[in-house]
């Protein structure tokens, strides 16, 4: 699987919310795209991830 263009190991039973937790990412503060599915901040589903999935994780930043 790829996360933001970088290879990441896949394992059986890996889900999107589990992955974000393991990476120390608060799902309320990121938008995630899994292949063609977009999950806005705070709306990530606990969907299974496959070995060939491509994820883009975008952190929400406030400007000033």
UniProtKB/TrEMBL annotation:
InterPro entries: Beta-grasp_dom_sf, Mopterin_synth/thiamin_S_b, Thi_S, ThiS/MoaD-like. This is Sulfur carrier protein. It comes from the Bacteria. Pfam families: ThiS.
């Amino acid at each position: 699987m790829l996360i933001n263009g970088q290879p990441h190991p896949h394992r059986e039973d890996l889900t999107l919310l589990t992955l974000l937790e393991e990476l120390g990412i608060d799902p309320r503060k990121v938008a995630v795209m899994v292949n063609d599915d977009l999950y806005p901040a705070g709306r990530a589903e606990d969907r299974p991830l496959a070995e060939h999935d491509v994820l883009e994780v975008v952190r929400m930043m406030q400007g000033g």
